[in-house]
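Q: Structure for this?
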Amino acid sequence: MAMHRNTDAIFDPHGVTADQFVLLLALEGKSLTQRELADRISSDPSTVRAMLVLLERSGLVERGNHPTDSRAKLVSLTTLGKRKLRILWDVGQSIRESMYGCLSAEDAELLVALLRKIADSLKQERSLV
Amino acid sequence: MAMHRNTDAIFDPHGVTADQFVLLLALEGKSLTQRELADRISSDPSTVRAMLVLLERSGLVERGNHPTDSRAKLVSLTTLGKRKLRILWDVGQSIRESMYGCLSAEDAELLVALLRKIADSLKQERSLV
DNA sequence: TATTGTTATACTCTATAACTATA
DNA sequence: TATAGTTATAGAGTATAACAATA
């Protein structure tokens, strides 16, 4: 598979790019419209469309009809997609844990807490816009 | 300018992509061959070549002859490139500081220290390979 | 009129393979 | 033989603009 980002190397052995992982993550536990998906991953409808075509081809995602809006399509994970997402999450988790290996347990926990605080702060900023 | 990553939005107004910024940063204070540059930014010679063509066109970088190896080319920042790099660094710095805005000064310092520890650990791992 | 999605087009980064020139 | 760089080719994400269908 062709990589298009350095970080893809992590997921490359699993046939998924880092961007695709982000998209799959946004679909965890719910169905979204392509537009909602684009907003969620801070991308563009045309970009999302291109990604979905590839992900559909890989069998990780499916697009069905929207119950009330016939313009929209509802995107959701297939069974294979859910399974793949779980695997990829575990891959990422093991990498994170090995990165924290040079820190004490307390420092690792502290680091995550600080990062989460920043993430929450940014998310709140964004929702105010 | 066409963006090719979400993070490009930060540098887009300055006509530089995030990847180009990484490359320019690797050239700060020194000249490197294209091969060294590729190793430094964990990329490929053909990729680096493509990037350098664009950066040369923008006038941020120049390629001269290598003093002892006539196969190699020495890549270095132009005056404009050095100036641009300083500006981009300041842009990044102001963004980092605004991100730390939700943390106390001590916590912000601690966060940077923890991240730097991880970075150093990864760098050491890499040099052992 | 506004919105959802599609299509066409263009740009940047990614990399592999085959190649030239030099060490 | 090995290395530095180039070229051709291919793939994936990025976005804009124009468009059809629907709300």
